[in-house]
Here is the input.
Amino acid sequence: MELANKATRIRLFDFKSVQMRAFHMSWLAFHLCFFGWFGIAPLMAVVREDLNLDKSMVGSTIIASVAITVLVRLLIGPLCDKFGPRKTYSTLLILGSMPVMCIGFADSFESFLIARLCIGAIGASFVITQYHTAVMFAPNIVGTANATTAGWGNLGGGTTQIVMPLVFAAIVSLGVSEAVGWRLAMVVPGIMLFLLGLAYLKFTQDAPDGNYSDLRAAGKIPPADRENGGMASFKKAASDYRVWALFVVYAGCFGVELTINNVAAIYFFDNFDVNLETAGLIAGLFGLMNIFARTMGGFFSDLSARYMGLTGRVRFLFLAMFIEGIALVAFSQMEVLATAIATMIVFSLFVQMSEGATFGIVPFMNKKALGGVNGIVGAGGNAGAVLAGFLFKSESLSYGQGLMFLGCAVMVCSFFAFFVRFSPEVLAEEKAAFDSASSGDDPIKARGGNEPEPA
Here is the structure.
Protein backbone atom coordinates (compact mmCIF):
# COMPACT_ATOMS: atom_id res chain seq x y z
CA MET A 1 0.00 0.00 0.00
CA GLU A 2 1.13 3.57 -0.59
CA LEU A 3 1.35 5.73 2.54
CA ALA A 4 1.94 9.48 2.77
CA ASN A 5 4.26 11.58 4.95
CA LYS A 6 7.14 9.13 5.21
CA ALA A 7 10.28 10.56 6.78
CA THR A 8 13.15 11.32 4.39
CA ARG A 9 15.75 11.60 7.15
CA ILE A 10 16.70 9.75 10.31
CA ARG A 11 16.79 12.13 13.29
CA LEU A 12 18.19 9.96 16.07
CA PHE A 13 17.42 12.37 18.91
CA ASP A 14 13.82 12.94 17.84
CA PHE A 15 11.51 11.00 20.14
CA LYS A 16 8.31 12.96 19.43
CA SER A 17 7.49 12.30 15.76
CA VAL A 18 5.64 9.05 15.08
CA GLN A 19 8.22 8.03 12.47
CA MET A 20 11.15 8.22 14.87
CA ARG A 21 9.13 6.86 17.77
CA ALA A 22 8.42 3.75 15.70
CA PHE A 23 12.10 3.65 14.75
CA HIS A 24 13.28 3.62 18.36
CA MET A 25 10.56 1.39 19.78
CA SER A 26 10.95 -1.22 17.03
CA TRP A 27 14.71 -1.66 17.43
CA LEU A 28 14.40 -1.73 21.22
CA ALA A 29 11.68 -4.38 21.02
CA PHE A 30 13.75 -6.54 18.68
CA HIS A 31 16.81 -6.06 20.91
CA LEU A 32 14.95 -7.34 23.96
CA CYS A 33 13.50 -10.20 21.95
CA PHE A 34 17.07 -11.34 21.36
CA PHE A 35 17.58 -11.38 25.13
CA GLY A 36 14.68 -13.74 25.51
CA TRP A 37 15.43 -15.73 22.36
CA PHE A 38 19.14 -16.37 22.99
CA GLY A 39 19.42 -15.60 26.70
CA ILE A 40 20.02 -19.26 27.45
CA ALA A 41 22.78 -19.70 24.82
CA PRO A 42 25.71 -18.30 26.87
CA LEU A 43 24.55 -20.42 29.82
CA MET A 44 24.44 -23.69 27.89
CA ALA A 45 27.63 -25.02 29.50
CA VAL A 46 25.80 -24.90 32.86
CA VAL A 47 22.49 -26.19 31.45
CA ARG A 48 24.34 -29.03 29.71
CA GLU A 49 25.68 -30.25 33.05
CA ASP A 50 22.43 -29.71 34.95
CA LEU A 51 20.22 -31.59 32.47
CA ASN A 52 22.88 -34.12 31.34
CA LEU A 53 22.75 -33.12 27.68
CA ASP A 54 25.10 -34.62 25.11
CA LYS A 55 26.22 -32.85 21.90
CA SER A 56 23.32 -34.23 19.87
CA MET A 57 20.81 -33.01 22.44
CA VAL A 58 22.38 -29.55 22.53
CA GLY A 59 22.22 -29.48 18.73
CA SER A 60 18.54 -30.42 18.82
CA THR A 61 17.77 -27.52 21.18
CA ILE A 62 19.63 -25.16 18.85
CA ILE A 63 17.48 -26.32 15.93
CA ALA A 64 14.32 -26.04 18.03
CA SER A 65 15.11 -22.43 18.99
CA VAL A 66 14.99 -21.31 15.36
CA ALA A 67 12.65 -23.86 13.74
CA ILE A 68 9.29 -22.53 14.91
CA THR A 69 10.34 -19.03 13.89
CA VAL A 70 10.17 -20.04 10.22
CA LEU A 71 6.43 -20.66 10.50
CA VAL A 72 5.70 -17.66 12.73
CA ARG A 73 7.60 -15.29 10.42
CA LEU A 74 5.57 -16.51 7.47
CA LEU A 75 2.37 -15.75 9.40
CA ILE A 76 3.39 -12.49 11.08
CA GLY A 77 3.96 -10.48 7.89
CA PRO A 78 0.37 -10.86 6.61
CA LEU A 79 -0.89 -10.14 10.15
CA CYS A 80 0.93 -6.79 9.97
CA ASP A 81 -0.93 -6.04 6.73
CA LYS A 82 -4.23 -6.92 8.36
CA PHE A 83 -3.96 -5.57 11.92
CA GLY A 84 -1.03 -3.17 11.66
CA PRO A 85 2.45 -3.49 13.19
CA ARG A 86 1.48 -1.82 16.49
CA LYS A 87 -1.05 -4.40 17.70
CA THR A 88 0.88 -7.28 16.14
CA TYR A 89 4.13 -6.38 17.90
CA SER A 90 2.50 -5.74 21.25
CA THR A 91 0.72 -9.10 21.17
CA LEU A 92 3.88 -10.99 20.20
CA LEU A 93 5.91 -9.38 22.99
CA ILE A 94 3.36 -10.12 25.69
CA LEU A 95 2.69 -13.71 24.62
CA GLY A 96 6.37 -14.37 23.92
CA SER A 97 7.39 -13.34 27.43
CA MET A 98 5.55 -16.35 28.90
CA PRO A 99 7.77 -19.22 27.65
CA VAL A 100 10.89 -17.13 28.35
CA MET A 101 9.99 -16.94 32.04
CA CYS A 102 8.78 -20.54 32.12
CA ILE A 103 11.89 -22.21 30.67
CA GLY A 104 13.16 -22.40 34.24
CA PHE A 105 10.63 -25.15 34.94
CA ALA A 106 12.42 -27.46 32.49
CA ASP A 107 13.84 -30.51 34.29
CA SER A 108 14.65 -32.80 31.36
CA PHE A 109 15.89 -32.70 27.78
CA GLU A 110 12.33 -32.99 26.45
CA SER A 111 10.87 -30.14 28.51
CA PHE A 112 13.88 -27.92 27.76
CA LEU A 113 13.51 -28.67 24.03
CA ILE A 114 9.82 -27.71 24.06
CA ALA A 115 10.58 -24.49 25.95
CA ARG A 116 13.22 -23.43 23.41
CA LEU A 117 10.83 -24.29 20.59
CA CYS A 118 8.12 -22.03 22.06
CA ILE A 119 10.56 -19.20 22.78
CA GLY A 120 11.60 -19.22 19.12
CA ALA A 121 8.28 -17.58 18.19
CA ILE A 122 9.55 -14.21 19.40
CA GLY A 123 12.14 -14.28 16.62
CA ALA A 124 9.30 -13.20 14.33
CA SER A 125 9.73 -9.76 15.90
CA PHE A 126 12.29 -9.03 13.20
CA VAL A 127 9.61 -9.05 10.50
CA ILE A 128 7.50 -6.50 12.37
CA THR A 129 10.53 -4.30 12.99
CA GLN A 130 11.34 -4.21 9.27
CA TYR A 131 7.70 -3.72 8.34
CA HIS A 132 7.22 -0.80 10.73
CA THR A 133 10.28 1.13 9.54
CA ALA A 134 9.45 0.39 5.89
CA VAL A 135 6.07 2.14 6.20
CA MET A 136 7.60 5.08 8.08
CA PHE A 137 10.58 6.01 5.85
CA ALA A 138 10.91 7.18 2.24
CA PRO A 139 12.83 5.36 -0.55
CA ASN A 140 16.00 7.45 -0.21
CA ILE A 141 16.56 6.38 3.41
CA VAL A 142 14.51 3.20 3.92
CA GLY A 143 17.52 0.90 3.42
CA THR A 144 19.47 2.67 6.14
CA ALA A 145 16.41 2.84 8.43
CA ASN A 146 15.63 -0.85 8.01
CA ALA A 147 19.26 -1.84 8.49
CA THR A 148 19.71 0.30 11.59
CA THR A 149 16.60 -0.88 13.43
CA ALA A 150 17.39 -4.50 12.57
CA GLY A 151 21.08 -4.06 13.40
CA TRP A 152 20.46 -2.44 16.76
CA GLY A 153 17.94 -5.18 17.41
CA ASN A 154 20.43 -7.88 16.43
CA LEU A 155 22.86 -6.16 18.78
CA GLY A 156 20.85 -7.93 21.44
CA GLY A 157 22.57 -11.12 20.34
CA GLY A 158 25.88 -9.60 21.44
CA THR A 159 24.78 -7.90 24.62
CA THR A 160 22.97 -11.09 25.64
CA GLN A 161 26.21 -13.08 25.41
CA ILE A 162 27.86 -10.56 27.73
CA VAL A 163 25.05 -9.66 30.12
CA MET A 164 23.38 -13.02 30.80
CA PRO A 165 26.52 -14.67 32.29
CA LEU A 166 26.83 -11.60 34.55
CA VAL A 167 23.17 -11.86 35.59
CA PHE A 168 23.72 -15.56 36.26
CA ALA A 169 26.88 -14.84 38.30
CA ALA A 170 25.08 -12.17 40.32
CA ILE A 171 22.25 -14.56 41.18
CA VAL A 172 24.64 -17.36 42.14
CA SER A 173 26.58 -14.91 44.35
CA LEU A 174 23.42 -14.56 46.45
CA GLY A 175 23.90 -18.14 47.57
CA VAL A 176 21.73 -20.14 45.16
CA SER A 177 23.06 -23.11 43.23
CA GLU A 178 24.01 -22.93 39.55
CA ALA A 179 21.07 -25.22 38.72
CA VAL A 180 18.69 -22.64 40.21
CA GLY A 181 20.71 -19.66 38.99
CA TRP A 182 20.24 -20.20 35.27
CA ARG A 183 16.51 -20.65 35.78
CA LEU A 184 16.11 -17.41 37.73
CA ALA A 185 18.28 -15.54 35.22
CA MET A 186 15.76 -16.18 32.43
CA VAL A 187 12.99 -14.45 34.39
CA VAL A 188 14.76 -11.12 33.83
CA PRO A 189 14.31 -10.92 30.02
CA GLY A 190 10.79 -12.34 30.34
CA ILE A 191 9.63 -9.47 32.55
CA MET A 192 11.28 -6.90 30.27
CA LEU A 193 9.47 -8.32 27.22
CA PHE A 194 6.09 -8.17 28.95
CA LEU A 195 6.50 -4.53 30.00
CA LEU A 196 7.73 -3.47 26.57
CA GLY A 197 4.70 -5.11 24.97
CA LEU A 198 2.47 -2.74 26.93
CA ALA A 199 4.66 0.25 26.07
CA TYR A 200 4.64 -0.56 22.35
CA LEU A 201 0.85 -0.42 22.29
CA LYS A 202 0.81 2.95 24.05
CA PHE A 203 3.65 4.84 22.36
CA THR A 204 3.54 3.85 18.67
CA GLN A 205 1.09 3.96 15.77
CA ASP A 206 0.95 1.97 12.55
CA ALA A 207 1.72 4.61 9.91
CA PRO A 208 2.74 8.30 9.70
CA ASP A 209 -0.88 9.48 9.50
CA GLY A 210 -2.49 7.11 11.99
CA ASN A 211 -3.39 3.51 12.81
CA TYR A 212 -4.62 1.17 10.09
CA SER A 213 -8.10 0.90 11.61
CA ASP A 214 -8.54 4.68 11.49
CA LEU A 215 -7.02 5.01 8.02
CA ARG A 216 -9.33 2.30 6.68
CA ALA A 217 -12.34 3.96 8.26
CA ALA A 218 -11.34 7.22 6.55
CA GLY A 219 -10.86 5.47 3.21
CA LYS A 220 -7.16 6.36 3.04
CA ILE A 221 -6.02 2.74 2.66
CA PRO A 222 -7.92 -0.30 1.30
CA PRO A 223 -9.92 -2.53 3.66
CA ALA A 224 -8.12 -5.66 4.90
CA ASP A 225 -10.19 -8.18 3.00
CA ARG A 226 -10.17 -10.13 -0.28
CA GLU A 227 -7.31 -8.93 -2.48
CA ASN A 228 -6.00 -6.71 0.31
CA GLY A 229 -6.21 -9.30 3.10
CA GLY A 230 -3.37 -11.07 4.86
CA MET A 231 -3.67 -14.29 2.86
CA ALA A 232 -3.75 -12.37 -0.40
CA SER A 233 -0.57 -10.57 0.65
CA PHE A 234 1.14 -13.88 1.31
CA LYS A 235 -0.02 -15.37 -2.01
CA LYS A 236 1.23 -12.37 -3.98
CA ALA A 237 4.61 -12.60 -2.33
CA ALA A 238 4.84 -16.39 -2.63
CA SER A 239 4.12 -16.30 -6.37
CA ASP A 240 7.20 -14.12 -7.05
CA TYR A 241 10.36 -16.19 -7.64
CA ARG A 242 12.51 -13.20 -6.69
CA VAL A 243 11.12 -13.32 -3.16
CA TRP A 244 12.28 -16.92 -2.83
CA ALA A 245 15.71 -15.95 -4.18
CA LEU A 246 15.98 -13.47 -1.31
CA PHE A 247 14.71 -16.24 0.99
CA VAL A 248 17.83 -18.23 0.09
CA VAL A 249 20.09 -15.18 0.36
CA TYR A 250 18.79 -14.36 3.82
CA ALA A 251 19.24 -17.98 4.85
CA GLY A 252 22.92 -17.50 4.06
CA CYS A 253 23.38 -14.37 6.18
CA PHE A 254 20.87 -14.06 9.02
CA GLY A 255 20.64 -17.85 9.26
CA VAL A 256 24.39 -17.89 9.84
CA GLU A 257 24.17 -15.13 12.45
CA LEU A 258 21.54 -17.05 14.41
CA THR A 259 23.72 -20.15 14.28
CA ILE A 260 26.78 -18.30 15.56
CA ASN A 261 24.69 -16.75 18.36
CA ASN A 262 23.82 -20.27 19.47
CA VAL A 263 27.24 -21.91 19.20
CA ALA A 264 29.88 -19.18 19.61
CA ALA A 265 30.11 -19.21 23.42
CA ILE A 266 30.27 -22.98 23.73
CA TYR A 267 32.68 -23.14 20.73
CA PHE A 268 35.19 -20.83 22.41
CA PHE A 269 34.60 -22.50 25.79
CA ASP A 270 35.39 -25.96 24.41
CA ASN A 271 38.17 -25.10 21.93
CA PHE A 272 40.21 -22.26 23.44
CA ASP A 273 40.36 -23.09 27.16
CA VAL A 274 38.52 -20.00 28.44
CA ASN A 275 35.95 -19.75 31.23
CA LEU A 276 32.23 -19.18 30.75
CA GLU A 277 32.32 -15.41 31.27
CA THR A 278 35.26 -14.95 28.87
CA ALA A 279 33.62 -17.18 26.24
CA GLY A 280 30.46 -15.09 26.52
CA LEU A 281 32.41 -11.86 26.20
CA ILE A 282 34.21 -13.07 23.06
CA ALA A 283 30.99 -14.39 21.54
CA GLY A 284 29.37 -11.06 22.37
CA LEU A 285 31.83 -9.26 20.08
CA PHE A 286 30.16 -10.98 17.13
CA GLY A 287 26.76 -9.52 17.94
CA LEU A 288 28.10 -6.13 19.06
CA MET A 289 29.19 -5.43 15.50
CA ASN A 290 25.50 -4.83 14.81
CA ILE A 291 25.82 -1.40 16.39
CA PHE A 292 27.12 -0.19 13.01
CA ALA A 293 27.72 -3.11 10.60
CA ARG A 294 24.14 -3.77 9.51
CA THR A 295 23.57 -0.02 9.17
CA MET A 296 26.59 0.06 6.84
CA GLY A 297 24.90 -2.56 4.68
CA GLY A 298 21.76 -0.46 4.41
CA PHE A 299 23.75 2.74 3.87
CA PHE A 300 25.80 1.26 1.02
CA SER A 301 22.62 -0.21 -0.45
CA ASP A 302 21.06 3.27 -0.50
CA LEU A 303 24.32 4.72 -1.84
CA SER A 304 24.43 2.13 -4.62
CA ALA A 305 20.83 2.99 -5.49
CA ARG A 306 21.79 6.65 -5.83
CA TYR A 307 24.17 5.83 -8.69
CA MET A 308 22.88 2.54 -10.13
CA GLY A 309 19.25 2.32 -9.01
CA LEU A 310 17.83 -0.98 -7.77
CA THR A 311 20.44 -2.88 -9.80
CA GLY A 312 23.11 -1.31 -7.61
CA ARG A 313 21.41 -2.65 -4.50
CA VAL A 314 21.52 -6.18 -5.93
CA ARG A 315 25.19 -5.97 -6.92
CA PHE A 316 26.24 -4.73 -3.52
CA LEU A 317 24.29 -7.54 -1.82
CA PHE A 318 26.14 -10.18 -3.84
CA LEU A 319 29.55 -8.68 -3.07
CA ALA A 320 28.99 -8.39 0.68
CA MET A 321 27.67 -11.92 0.96
CA PHE A 322 30.41 -13.54 -1.11
CA ILE A 323 33.05 -11.95 1.13
CA GLU A 324 31.06 -13.17 4.15
CA GLY A 325 31.47 -16.76 2.96
CA ILE A 326 35.23 -16.37 2.47
CA ALA A 327 35.63 -14.85 5.94
CA LEU A 328 33.63 -17.65 7.58
CA VAL A 329 35.83 -20.32 5.99
CA ALA A 330 38.90 -18.46 7.27
CA PHE A 331 37.41 -18.25 10.79
CA SER A 332 36.80 -21.99 10.83
CA GLN A 333 40.51 -22.67 10.32
CA MET A 334 41.83 -20.50 13.17
CA GLU A 335 43.56 -22.31 16.04
CA VAL A 336 44.98 -19.35 17.96
CA LEU A 337 42.53 -17.35 20.09
CA ALA A 338 43.67 -13.89 18.95
CA THR A 339 43.43 -14.71 15.23
CA ALA A 340 40.11 -16.49 15.76
CA ILE A 341 38.67 -13.35 17.36
CA ALA A 342 40.06 -11.12 14.58
CA THR A 343 38.65 -13.23 11.75
CA MET A 344 35.33 -13.59 13.58
CA ILE A 345 35.02 -9.81 13.69
CA VAL A 346 35.71 -9.49 9.94
CA PHE A 347 33.22 -12.27 9.26
CA SER A 348 30.66 -10.57 11.52
CA LEU A 349 31.04 -7.28 9.62
CA PHE A 350 30.08 -8.85 6.29
CA VAL A 351 27.33 -11.08 7.72
CA GLN A 352 25.52 -8.05 9.04
CA MET A 353 26.20 -5.88 6.01
CA SER A 354 24.63 -8.64 3.89
CA GLU A 355 21.54 -8.61 6.10
CA GLY A 356 21.22 -4.85 5.80
CA ALA A 357 21.66 -5.03 2.04
CA THR A 358 18.96 -7.72 1.76
CA PHE A 359 16.36 -5.55 3.46
CA GLY A 360 17.54 -2.60 1.42
CA ILE A 361 15.87 -4.44 -1.47
CA VAL A 362 12.80 -5.96 0.22
CA PRO A 363 10.66 -2.75 0.38
CA PHE A 364 10.79 -2.49 -3.43
CA MET A 365 9.74 -6.05 -4.26
CA ASN A 366 5.96 -5.66 -4.02
CA LYS A 367 4.46 -2.70 -2.17
CA LYS A 368 0.99 -4.26 -2.23
CA ALA A 369 2.30 -7.30 -0.36
CA LEU A 370 4.92 -5.77 1.93
CA GLY A 371 3.97 -7.97 4.87
CA GLY A 372 4.06 -11.14 2.78
CA VAL A 373 7.48 -10.32 1.32
CA ASN A 374 8.90 -9.40 4.73
CA GLY A 375 7.54 -12.61 6.22
CA ILE A 376 8.89 -14.96 3.55
CA VAL A 377 12.33 -13.38 3.31
CA GLY A 378 12.58 -13.13 7.10
CA ALA A 379 11.63 -16.80 7.40
CA GLY A 380 14.54 -17.63 5.11
CA GLY A 381 16.95 -16.58 7.85
CA ASN A 382 15.50 -19.10 10.26
CA ALA A 383 15.26 -21.81 7.63
CA GLY A 384 18.98 -21.34 7.06
CA ALA A 385 19.61 -21.56 10.81
CA VAL A 386 17.63 -24.82 11.01
CA LEU A 387 19.67 -26.39 8.21
CA ALA A 388 22.93 -25.11 9.68
CA GLY A 389 21.93 -26.56 13.04
CA PHE A 390 22.24 -30.08 11.68
CA LEU A 391 25.94 -29.45 11.02
CA PHE A 392 26.45 -28.82 14.73
CA LYS A 393 24.24 -31.67 15.84
CA SER A 394 26.30 -34.35 14.14
CA GLU A 395 28.74 -36.24 16.35
CA SER A 396 30.95 -36.95 13.31
CA LEU A 397 31.69 -33.27 12.61
CA SER A 398 33.62 -30.89 14.81
CA TYR A 399 32.34 -27.34 15.22
CA GLY A 400 35.27 -26.11 13.11
CA GLN A 401 34.35 -28.45 10.24
CA GLY A 402 30.74 -27.38 10.48
CA LEU A 403 31.75 -23.72 10.19
CA MET A 404 33.87 -24.45 7.12
CA PHE A 405 31.01 -26.22 5.31
CA LEU A 406 28.71 -23.37 6.29
CA GLY A 407 31.07 -20.82 4.75
CA CYS A 408 31.10 -22.71 1.45
CA ALA A 409 27.29 -22.80 1.48
CA VAL A 410 27.18 -19.02 2.01
CA MET A 411 29.27 -18.43 -1.11
CA VAL A 412 26.83 -20.53 -3.13
CA CYS A 413 23.84 -18.65 -1.68
CA SER A 414 25.34 -15.29 -2.66
CA PHE A 415 24.76 -15.99 -6.36
CA PHE A 416 20.99 -16.15 -5.77
CA ALA A 417 21.07 -12.36 -5.48
CA PHE A 418 21.31 -12.17 -9.26
CA PHE A 419 17.85 -13.72 -9.59
CA VAL A 420 16.43 -10.46 -8.20
CA ARG A 421 15.64 -8.35 -11.25
CA PHE A 422 13.31 -5.46 -11.95
CA SER A 423 11.54 -4.33 -15.13
CA PRO A 424 12.73 -1.12 -16.84
CA GLU A 425 9.47 0.55 -15.81
CA VAL A 426 10.01 -0.28 -12.12
CA LEU A 427 13.65 0.80 -12.28
CA ALA A 428 12.65 4.17 -13.74
CA GLU A 429 9.77 4.62 -11.30
CA GLU A 430 11.87 3.86 -8.23
CA LYS A 431 14.74 6.04 -9.46
CA ALA A 432 12.32 8.96 -9.79
CA ALA A 433 10.89 8.28 -6.32
CA PHE A 434 14.41 8.10 -4.87
CA ASP A 435 15.42 11.39 -6.45
CA SER A 436 12.20 13.06 -5.32
CA ALA A 437 12.67 11.91 -1.72
CA SER A 438 16.33 12.99 -1.77
CA SER A 439 15.49 16.51 -2.87
CA GLY A 440 12.16 16.96 -1.06
CA ASP A 441 11.35 18.35 2.35
CA ASP A 442 11.33 16.10 5.38
CA PRO A 443 7.67 15.86 6.50
CA ILE A 444 8.78 15.79 10.14
CA LYS A 445 10.66 19.07 9.74
CA ALA A 446 7.95 20.58 7.55
CA ARG A 447 5.34 20.09 10.28
CA GLY A 448 7.71 21.19 13.04
CA GLY A 449 7.70 17.71 14.58
CA ASN A 450 4.08 18.04 15.71
CA GLU A 451 2.68 14.58 15.12
CA PRO A 452 -0.61 13.17 16.34
CA GLU A 453 -0.43 11.03 19.44
CA PRO A 454 -1.04 7.32 18.89
CA ALA A 455 -4.49 6.01 19.58
About this structure: Residues 293-332 form the longest helix (40 residues). The mean pLDDT is 88.
